[in-house]
Every structure is written in structure tokens, then in C-alpha cells.
Amino acid sequence: HQRDQSTAAHRQQDLNALIHHGSRWTTEGSVVKDDPTPPSGGALSGKTIAIKDNITTRDLPTTAASKTLAGYTSPFDATVVKLLRHHGAIIAAKANLDAFGMGSHTQHSHSGAALSPYSRNGVPLSPGGSSGGSAVAVAMGQCWAALGTDTGGSVRLPAAYAGVVGFKPSYGVLSRWGVVQYANSLDTVGILGRSVEGVKQVFGCLDGHDGRDPSSLSRSVKERFGRPRRVLKELRIGVPVEYNIAELSPAVRSTYLRTLGLLQDHGHSLHAVSLPTTRQALSAYYVLAPAEASSNLAKYDGIRYGYRTDGPDASPKNSLPLYARTRGEGFGEEVKRRILLGAYTLSSEAIDNYFIQAQKVRRLVQRDFDGVFAQPNPLLESDDLGTGAGDKGREGVDVLLTPTAPTLPPTVEEVKRQSSVESYMNDVFTVPASLAGLPAISVPVGLSGRETEGMEETDVQSVGMQLVGQFGDDELVLQAAELLE
Ligand code: GLN
User: Which value does ipTM take for this structure?
Assistant: First the structure.
């Protein structure tokens, strides 16, 4: 038994899911036990929760997995962390990520890459990213649940790859105060857990207006959210035709079809819908997110906080100014690529062809979604409410079901051989909901016997299925997700 535990400890350490541990990290064979003496009798009393390391905690460092913030500890807790503590949770540890949330495999981390517990031919699989550390920590039982951030899929993709549940609420529902910015107009705090029920419990504790976050939704907007009006026994489920791409791997396609069939057997109805702008969504995202990032990351100049290079400012010996050397040394390759890309697409010569076009695509993506959901978008003025499919006399759908990613996770060696653009491809199904700010969840659906034929026992045995709802339909998405478990 002891040997088992030390092997488990060894494995968890190797996976590098958690990068800073708290003093209340009570371990037994390195598996965190729920604290026997919870700080208060709240809804999350004694539950251990890992926090992605781009969310501030006053008692643990917050580095965003970048050398730029190495050794930094914030003087305050992010609002979401404060709320977790308030409800009795134990902030157990900080979870690994791609620096600043930029990546899909948690391989671009100053603290070293994170690995999935699954492997193929002896090579570990990608844990997904950028919240790969949060997903692996949940999968390995190192914490009860974890917070991540999702800008273009960073909670849903790792959840799918590690076989756990990952929920990205509607934009503005959870506070971003204390969350290290990547792309403000897309950044969302998300929740990872072993079950939808656990995720729901955490969500219930975090949902609320925060005056410190200007993008936090006010109560008056929330009052316009769809009332729980649908009969969960007869959901109208949209199947977007554009997601049936040739790149879908056989295991993903067959799990998707089987899941749709099961839902139909349970009395829900399936409806083919079209989201034509889906094809442009990924390109638009990889213009918009880096543009916002290049502007956000300008503040890491080595003067106010964080990493600063040695030596004096520009001098005959040091031809570059201090801030330029600091940034050159502090940021990793992927972050520099995004900053350069963003600076270019915002430049006067390129802005019309890139940034402005991408903004237009974003609008079209939002319009596509509004055109298929029965529920009108509560963010539109009441005059415009007619854009909901339901109001056009057609019956729209309640939720959309798609795979979370087109394939099973690649191995980390395959990831190393991928070009940046190939690795951006993993986000093709998650990015549209991010551009529109919609609630979306990835739920692991186990492979059937036939689907696992020829697969190794060490390989991942589930496929992430994604449900997307109209803006503000977070509760409905969570309820529908329970049907997939
Ligand atoms: N993989 C995407 C990116 O690198 C999404 C990241 C995220 O959601 N934080 O931008």
C-alpha cells in the first residue's frame, strides 16, 4: 500500500500540475485530503481547490508561469479566490499553465511543462492547455476542484484531454478582478471538477456582481437572462453542420454520434443548424487575442514589479534600454510571438486588413449564434430582441452539442513537432463560444468498447463533448451537461 502511495506521489510530481503549494496542503501519499477543520461552515467547507497561477492569491505566488512574474506574490486575493475562502474552501495550491494563458498544451511554462496522466507508446499525452495543471490536478485527485481561465478554450480543452468536466460561464458572470489579463474582452474564469455537480457547487459560490471588475455584469442585465422556461425532458439540441469536419478523428466522431443518439433516445430532439462564420472564427480569434495581449502585456517593463534584468539602462555597453532587455529575457517564445503578432495587426498599415476584419467576423459569429438559439440574446436592446430564432417564427434550439476538440489528445512529442498554427487548430471548436461570450462546458463521455479497440490501457478513455448555450443560459448548460454523465 505504501509503495502504491509513493508511486502515486512520484507520478503526480512528474506531471508537474501544481507549481506552488500552500502550508495547509495536507497530504497523505501526496493525495490532498479534505481539511478536517474547515475554516468556516460554508458550502465548500474543507474542499481543496487549486487555482490556476494567473489568478492572484495573497499567500501563494502568482507567476502566470512566466519568468516575468517569477517570485511575485500579490498583496490581494482575486475576487473569485476571496469568495472560495468565504465559502470555506481551502486554497490548496497554484496550478501550472501556458505562460499568461497562451497555448493549448501547457508546454510553454517557465515552471516546466505539465503532463497528462495518460500516455501512448510510453509517451505522455498533452494535458491540453492553457489550464492543463488545473485539469491534471483534478484528474489525479490532487484537489477536489480547480479554477482555470478560458479565453479561447483553455478550460474546456484541458478538461477534454484529461477526462474531467470544464465549464466556461458567460463572459462577465464571474469576476476577473485579480486575474492576470491575456485578452480582456475574452478572458473568463472557469471551473474544473470531477462531476458537473461539483462544478455547479463552485459556480454557485462565485456567481455575483463585482464592482471592482468593470466587465462584471450588473444585476439589471442579469434580470434579462432567460428564465428557466424549458422542459429539461424535451431539450431542443442543435447540431451545427459546420462542425462535421474531415479532421474529426474516428473515435471523436463515433462518440459524438453515439451521444447524440442517446440524447434522442431520452426524448430530446436533434436539429441541424448552420453557423456559417465558424470557419473564420479561429483566424479572427488569433488576430484579436494577440492584439489585446500585446497591449495588456506592455505593463511588464521591469520597473514596477516582476523580473528586471541586471545592469544599468542603455549605455555604450548595453545598447538596448532596460525595459527592452527585461522583456526580451522575461517573456517566453510563445508570448513574444503573440506580442509581435498583436503589435503588427494593430499597426496602421495592417489594422484594416486584420484587426478590423476580425472584429467584423466576431460580430458575425455572435449573429450566427443568435440566429439559432430559441432564447433571444439578453445583451441586445429590447428593440433588437427579434434576432432570436424563436422570434422569427422558427423554433430555435436550447443548446448546441459539438465535440470539444477534433481529435483525442496528441502526445507531447507530436506537440513539439507541430507548428504554432497546427497547435492553434486544437481550439477550432472552442473559440466560437469565446468570441460570442457564451456559456460552454466540456463533459467527458467514455469511449465504448468498440471505440477503444486497438488502444492502449494507458490512453485516455473518454472524449470531451461540448455544450454551448445562449448568453446567460449558464444554468441550462449545466443542467444539460448532467444528461451526458
Ligand atoms: N489556446 C488558446 C490560446 O493560446 C486559448 C488560450 C486560453 O483560452 N487562455 O490563445
Answer: 0.98
